[in-house]
Design goal:
Largest sheet: 7 strands, mixed
Shape: globular
Helix content: 40-55%
Number of strands: 9
Number of domains: 3
Keywords: Oxidoreductase
Strand order of the largest sheet: 5-6-2-1-3-4-7
GO molecular function, one term: acyl-CoA dehydrogenase activity
Radius of gyration: 21 Å
Protein name: Acyl-CoA dehydrogenase
Strand content: 15-25%
Structural class: alpha+beta
Distance between the termini: 38 Å
């Protein structure tokens, strides 16, 4: 199957959502044990992969489903609703595997993605900022560096890492076997404990140039229009969906807490203040979600027309992610205030609150990104363009 110029809307989308729904009870039940383990079991990870979550973002010409941005957004949202750590793990594996498949040429594609339709493909985890050093040698690079937060590494076969080429300063992204790096046993955090987001390092590892690509490329070697978004914009899709899934689950959990306590002596959930704050949180989450989907709808129209997103669209999709995260945090504060002991005893409310607090620290939702969005939108630097998360 060859790629087509327009944006692909996958007919597999409803079936994948159905398979996620079927896994919902299992994800809910396994979320606590996965936290204790520090990662999801291979059975859970395999069930999610078999549901098509990573395949959803892989290029069609390699055997993937190649979902549209809004299809990917809703899919991650659905997984994250059941288990925030599972949603985070899968969206990380998804985007790093998909961008590797899209931007590497035929040599690497034959090596890493020999039969996607039958489940024979590499899974990549790693980190795309704070690049390592790449010394040019015949046919490739000698790579050294230390990277952080490799979400999903427990399930990965290969590593995705940013590198900077010595002499030229060019930023590239590599794919190499996980066996060529050393994993640091340092994943000890407040939330998202089941993502196994360990740090890792290597020294003087040879990586062929065929298994690297320019970090800022928007020209795919495989697949269609969605891959013209580039690595950072594709990453924004998963993080946005994650925030909405987590926010929705927390509001639904609070609703269950309120139903159990209403009518009891001095129940805070029977007050007008609770009802007003619940309604405010509901309105905020729905409004943020509607706006994010509107932003991505506009991006889809642009991609379908064969064009690259404008600077305004690049700004808005970053702002929509930032706003989704801050809105979910507002929801979390409301839930924490009114859920009482459910917010501090071990259980779904407490776990989702910790996962939200941890996930909101991701660099894509940082205050600096918000400031850069305001700089461009306010007209302070109309000539500036986005390079990763910075205005250049």
């Amino acid at each position: 199957m060859t790629a087509t110029p327009g944006l692909h809307i996958s007919p597999e989308f409803p079936a994948v959502l159905d398979r996620i729904a079927e896994l919902g009870a299992t994800l809910d039940a396994q979320a606590g044990p996965a936290e204790e383990l520090g990662r999801h079991t291979e059975d859970t990870a395999r069930a999610l992969l078999d549901a098509g979550i990573v395949r959803a973002e892989l290029p069609r010409n390699l055997g993937g489903y190649e979902f549209s941005p809004r299809q990917l957004l809703e899919m991650v949202e659905r997984v994250s609703y059941h288990d925030a750590a599972a949603g985070w793990t899968m969206q990380a594996l998804q985007v790093m595997t998909a961008t590797t498949a899209a931007y590497l040429g035929p040599t690497a594609a034959a090596d890493l993605f020999p039969d996607v339709a039958n489940g024979k493909y590499a899974l990549l985890a790693g980190h795309g900022t704070r690049p390592g050093r790449a010394v040019p040698v015949d046919g490739g690079f000698l790579v050294s560096g230390a990277w952080q937060f490799a979400s999903g590494m427990a399930h990965a076969s290969h590593v995705h890492s940013a590198i900077q080429v010595e002499g030229t300063g060019e930023l590239r992204v590599l794919a190499m076997p996980r066996s060529q790096v050393v994993l640091d046993a340092n994943w000890d955090v407040l939330g998202l404990r089941a993502t196994y987001s360990v740090d890792y390092h290597c020294a003087d590892v040879y990586v062929p140039s065929t298994h690297t690509y320019p970090a800022t490329t928007t020209t795919p070697a495989n697949g269609g229009a969605i891959y013209r978004l580039g690595l950072v914009n594709l990453s924004a899709i998963g993080h946005t969906g994650w925030a909405f899934g987590v926010g929705r689950r927390l509001l639904d959990e609070l609703k269950s807490v309120a139903a159990a306590r209403t009518g009891t002596r001095n129940a805070a959930v029977d007050t007008s203040q609770f009802h007003a704050e619940y309604a405010t949180a509901e309105a905020g989450l729905r409004a943020a979600r509607a706006w994010a989907y509107e932003v991505w709808q506009g991006v889809e129209v642009t991609l379908d027309a064969g064009e690259l997103p404008s600077t305004e669209q690049d700004t808005l999709l970053r702002l929509a992610l930032n706003h989704a995260t801050s809105t979910a945090l507002d929801v979390g504060r409301t839930v924490h205030r009114w859920a009482g002991t459910a917010a501090i005893r071990r259980g779904p409310v407490e776990r989702f609150l910790r996962d939200l607090a941890t996930g909101s620290q991701h660099i894509t939702s940082s205050p600096v990104v918000l400031q850069n969005c305001g700089t461009w939108l306010s007209g302070a630097r109309p000539e500036a363009r986005w390079t990763f998360l910075d205005l250049a």
